Amino acid sequence: MSTSRALLKRTSDLLTLATRVLLALFSAGLALLVSMVIFLLGTRLFYAERALPGVHAAGVSLGGLTPDEIETVLGQALTYPKTGLIALQDGDQLWTTRPEELGVIIDLPAMALQAIAIGRQGSLIEHLQQQIDAWYLGHPISPIVIFDQVVGGFYLQGLAQGIDRPTLEASLALNGTVVEMRPGQIGRQLEIQANLEALATPISRLHDGGIALVINETPPQVLDASEQAEIAREILRLPLTLTVEDAGPWVIDHPELASMLRFDLAEDAGDIHYQVTLDPQALTAILEPLALELARQAENSRFYFDDDTGELVLIDGAVIGRSLDIPATIEAINTGLTGGQHQISLAFEITEPIVGDEATASELGISQPVSVVSTYFSGSSAGRIHNIKIASSAFHGLLVAPGETLSMAEVLGDVSLDTGYAEALIIYGNRTIKGVGGGVCQVSTTLFRAIFFGGYPIVERHSHAYRVGYYEAGPGSPGPGLDAAVFVPLVDLIFTNDSPYWLLLETYTYSNNRLQWKFYSTSDGRQVEWSREIISETEAPEPLYRENPDLPEGEIKQVDYQADGMDVIVYRTVTREGEVIHQDTIKTHYLPWQAIYEYGPGTELPPGVKTE
To answer: Given this model, what pLDDT does residue 4 score?
Structure first.
């Protein structure tokens, strides 16, 4: 019991001692804190409207300085806008400038306000904390740099006047026959905003520095056309000569060449350049007339059949057909000229003939005559006989392929004085007049009869307006209804070789005024039966006399000959092995034709004649 009491007493004494110690310590700390607060508040009162101790900027202490004094001190320390150096570079060109010329300033009033604000922001405790931090640790003020980009932009725009330039395309032009070339130019534009952004880094750090100016370059499509200019000059150095082995040459001189030169933009593997050519339309205008002049149809070899040997004998060699290939020629001209050539061959599309000079009768299936007819032209004028020989010779040795359709007009071509025909009497409208080609119908009538009696299909046939005595005269004449008129190019005679063999045509004129037409081939067994029916006949009108002031007095000249009118039908049946393969009904209407006489003024006429 006594031990417990002793323990309690001892514990109570310890607690009392601890309490006394704590009260003593608290009193001392509170006194110190109060002393410090009084000191800090006193310092603040002493530095009213001045920077507190420990505030500094740019290595300069600002404690105790008023705003105006701070601005003055910092203005002396922060001289970067006036003393800094900025270098601007564009290739070999270099410009140096002071930051202030670019619109750079130090905001001294703002820095002064910032310095004064230290220790005077937030609550009282925060004020005291800032004051203590500034006192013991120091408080730096960062320079406030203002970069006026409007001023900087104006400065850069001044530089741009010496840097910027437009994009210019290289150009080619002609001054008469002289080629003029202007080189291109790369466009350049100073990028104001990009350069201002690049300047912001050294300026914000108050450092001297330099930047490579940001410049946007725009190249032209064609920078250099000197090579093409030389090509154009070479083209104009000599005239252009167009050649072909059997005609020409044709020369295009310098002024005409120059008028056709074109400079067009072309792209090759991404490279854009000028292409020097002659204008295709201008070349076409020159080449089209040549195409007509130089065109040549492919022609098979011409032969006659030797009845003794059964072989073909060459008359005329085959002709290779050609037509001027205008697009290929234009390409050849432009390619050749750009390669330095001035003599260029025309380009042709070639057509090979079907039958060449080495063809044999057996290859073509020709072994015998299959149709032979003759007509007579006694009493014909010299001009008519001449025309018969020219027209018939166009067919001598001609080959007609199996299945081919032959147009007499196409074979004859142009019937005119230029192609060797003479003037003779022809039927034109309702009159017989003198015209070019009289006598050609003797040839067409003879051909028609060879077609008719050979059993070949008749595609187109036209009769004469009236009965012509030549076509009903001579031994073996079949009479009316088997004539054929041809008037190139409107009236034609057309037939088809429907046999499986080639057909060889031969024509001969003899001194007894006989025209013979032979068809050679191989018979396929066809047979021809024919008949004629005369439907009606009409007598010719009485002769008519007409005055011709070009004839002398006393001369009477017959210019047309009377013929009775007739309507006739010819029937033809072609069979092979008893089967009908062709059946024709050929109707012909012949007008009654009046004899006409012309006489000179004052000529005495026979009594009772009819005059016009």
So the answer is: 47
